[in-house]
Design brief:
The chain has 593 residues and is an alpha+beta fold. The strands form 4 sheets. The chain has a 5-stranded antiparallel β-sheet, sandwiched between helices. Strands 7-6-10-9-8 form a 5-stranded antiparallel β-sheet. The protein is rod-shaped, with a radius of gyration of 59 Å. The two termini are 34 Å apart.
């Protein structure tokens, strides 16, 4: 035993083995794998994010170009369609000003008032007559149209006229007084300008697609290096290196740029004759969240590795090592003889809770079994002492009875011989030379029959005995000497002092119970009932009582010790005027020894 304990002490405790396993086989490989995985993932996500930003911005620019091209094409309709030119030539021929105005107004309304790319359209005839036609986008109020017309004539028209002098057949896109205007000359068939078409672009529509670029924060649009539209007064202020100098390269595909800690997308396109530069400022936080969030996550994961190991260790210590230590301690206590030792149920898992309950149940049952055996042995000892208290030498007495029995047979006195044999049976039962706890029901009934024969010889015709025993039950095992004391009690209290009496013994089965009923004539008095209740209680300590009373108490105690509190002896009055003593034991035990 000492050698086994010393070998057990040399082995590492479970918790340190668990810590080593976590560090070497879990934490270190997981940290390395996580670092490699996140490093590769960050690089891939960065490239994917850049492609997504550039693609999103490029798509927005293409939409702007399409809308800008559509606006330019719409401006050409005034030249391509002969309506304005023919109306002007007709006026020069016939001088019908009313027809001239009506035709031009109708043309401008149909061509440009329903196009949301234009806010206002101006058509100024530079020759005779110097007519100025002004049309607004459908939905504008009359007051807004009036105010826009005045502002155009006072602030915009002078600049437009200066630009138109050198424009020839080209189209100009310029920024004047905070607005973006598309300007072109209308030419006669001999290529002499006779009118100037000016259209104020609706920048929210033409350049509105830029808002859809991923991470959009602001924008600026340049034409031939000159600022055209956008948030020039916003995000460009105080940002060196961000301005027209970016568009010195006349052909630049959409690219992502980081400047002074900020992120931009810029491109230079030449859809027709002019270079158009686009600059989009991106939300720095949005870019960082997408491109660097995974790096922060990986760093946090690495930082949380150590606490996670501690949490796992505490989890296993609480769920595994502590319950195992409690079981080992309880096993040592049981090994040292502390039967009935109970484990405090501190396990938080179903498995160890079951083990703890099973151990507690086993320990309690072991203590109960030892207590029962000890108590039963004491009860049997008391029964044997009481049964043999008048005998000095039972073996000598048994041998003497055998000699007397032979003498009675020689003289053919068979009644005496039978009495001696019954007495020998009773003496053998009380001596219990083989120390058996259980006997068959058949053997137990032989004790009863021997006792009843002796009593019947003493009482003669006064005693009548009836037995009703199920023959199929005779092989069942029952505790030894549990029926005879009940018969003795029935004779003493139910027959003595009466002219005649009857005792009925019935043995039958009710489910899993074997029932033994002993009926005798006469009713119990209130005093007898109180005495029986006291004798059969657990708290009663017998004093100077008769052998029959001590016998029924002994029977009840032994049955409860062996089978449990739900079994035992009960004595009651019946309405028929009889007293019934009822014993209940298990009927399923056949191999008791």
């Amino acid at each position: 035993m000492k050698g086994q304990k010393s070998r057990a002490l040399k082995k590492a405790p479970l918790k340190w083995s668990m810590v080593s396993l976590l560090l070497l086989c879990w934490l270190l490989p997981l940290a390395l794998a996580s670092y490699m995985m996140f490093y590769m993932a960050v690089g891939k996500i960065n490239s994917q994010t850049e492609r997504m930003i550039v693609t999103s911005a490029d798509n927005a620019l293409r939409i702007c170009e399409m809308r800008m091209d559509a606006a330019v094409e719409a401006s050409r309709n005034a030249s391509y369609f002969p309506t304005v030119r023919e109306s002007y030539e007709n006026f020069l021929t016939d001088g019908n000003l009313f027809a001239f105005r009506k035709t031009v107004n109708l043309f401008l309304e149909r061509q440009y008032c329903y196009d949301d790319s234009f806010l206002y359209t101006s058509l100024l005839f530079t020759g005779e007559p110097q007519e100025h036609f002004f049309a607004a986008y459908r939905g504008s109020t009359s007051n807004a149209v009036y105010q826009a017309g005045r502002r155009f004539e006072e602030k915009v028209m002078p600049g437009v006229l200066e630009i138109s002098k050198e424009l020839d057949t080209d189209v100009a896109v310029v920024a004047i007084e905070g607005g973006v205007y598309l300007i072109r000359n209308l030419m006669t068939t001999s290529y002499h300008p006779y009118a100037v078409l000016t259209m104020e672009l609706n920048t929210d529509v033409v350049f509105g697609s830029l808002d859809g670029a991923w991470g959009y924060e602001g924008s600026a649009i340049y034409i031939d290096g000159v600022f055209l539209a956008g948030d020039n007064s916003g995000f460009l202020e105080g940002r060196p290196g961000i301005g027209p100098e970016l568009f010195e390269d006349n052909n630049r595909e959409c690219s992502l740029m980081k400047k002074n800690g900020e992120y931009y997308v810029y491109a230079v396109r030449k859809p027709k004759r002019h270079y158009i530069g686009y600059l989009i400022s991106l939300n720095r936080q949005a870019v960082i969240d997408e491109t660097y969030a995974l790096k922060y996550i990986s760093l946090l994961l690495l930082l949380f590795m150590a606490p996670l190991v501690g949490i796992v260790f505490l989890f296993f210590r609480r769920k595994v090592t502590k319950p195992v230590s409690n079981l080992i301690r309880a096993a040592h206590m049981l090994q040292e003889g502390h039967f009935g030792y109970q484990i405090e149920n501190s396990a938080n898992s179903q498995d160890f809770e079951y083990l703890a309950e099973a151990f507690n149940h086993m320990s309690a049952r072991l203590q109960d079994q030892i207590h029962r055996i000890y108590t039963e042995e004491l009860a049997l000892k008391d029964a044997r002492i009481m049964a043999l208290q008048a005998q000095i030498n039972p073996h000598f007495l048994n041998n003497a009875l055998e000699i007397i029995n032979w003498e009675a047979r020689i003289h053919e006195n068979y009644e005496v011989s039978r009495m001696i044999e019954s007495l020998s049976v009773m003496l053998e039962a009380t001596m219990d030379r083989r120390h058996r706890r259980f006997v068959t029901l058949a053997e137990e009934m032989s004790y009863v029959e021997a006792y009843l024969f002796i009593i019947s010889q003493r009482m003669g015709e006064r005693l009548k005995v009836e037995t009703d025993v199920d023959e199929s039950l005779r092989s069942l095992k029952v505790p030894r000497l549990i029926i005879q004391p009940i018969i003795e009690n029935a004779v003493e209290h139910g027959i003595n002092g009466q002219t005649e009496g009857r005792i009925t013994v019935r043995i039958f089965r009710e489910g899993e119970r074997l029932v033994i009923e002993v009926r005798n004539m006469g009713r119990l008095s209130r005093q007898d009932e109180e005495k029986i209740k006291m004798l059969l209680s657990d708290d009663y300590e017998p004093g100077d009582v008769g052998s029959a009373s001590l016998g029924i108490r002994n029977v009840n105690r032994r049955i409860k010790i062996i089978y449990g509190e739900e079994y035992g002896l009960a004595i009651r009055n019946e309405e028929s005027g009889e007293t019934v003593s009822r014993i209940e034991v298990q009927a399923t035990i056949k191999d008791k020894k």
